[in-house]
Give the backbone structure.
Amino acid sequence: MPLTELAEKVDITLANLSILKTGKAKTIRFSSLEALCKALQCQPGDILEYVSLTKPPPTGFATCESAY
């Protein structure tokens, strides 16, 4: 599915979807994550990956930063 179509389906701007895709996003709303999973017919773990802050994230993945 093209990014423009996905952006329309989940009601996220193309710019924000691109930020998510490139791994530059620092946060994501649960409602956005839910909409993405619904549109892509997947689970959150299929599109998110925990990456330690001690090494740079791979290209194309969003990261979760620990508060500890």
Notes: The radius of gyration is 12 Å. The chain is about 45% helix and 0% strand. Residues 3-47 form one domain. Helices lie at 3-10, 14-22, 30-40, 44-47.
